Amino acid sequence: MLPACNSCGFRFERDPGFFLGSIYINYGWTAMITTIGYISLRFGMDIPGKKLVFVFAPFCVLFPLFFFRYARSLWLSLDCRLDVTTLEDSPKQ
Q1: Which of 2, 68, 73, 76 is the most exposed place for a label (fewest CB within 10 A)?
Q2: pLDDT tens digits, 40-89
Q3: How many CB atoms lie within 10 A of CB 61?
Q4: What is the distance between the alpha carbons of residues 1 and 41, in angstroms, rounded to a whole number?
């Protein structure tokens, strides 16, 4: 990931460990999709739980790897939306 925007100079990472919060977004989406999918398939379509483990175990490993960059962008956009002072402090090129 680039440290700053090439066109406006906006710094993406504020402090060391800034994107640690994106892990919670990634975990939350993974847990929500897995829970809704499991409950829907187990009780709605009466698929045995042992078969669903083979579907959702790989999903719980692969989805966070795919969703990693989107979780970071969501975390950054939440920070920009809720803390406008960081926009003013960002150096311009």
Answers
A1: 2
A2: 999 999 999 899 999 999 999 999 999 999 999 899 888 888 876 655 55
A3: 10
A4: 38
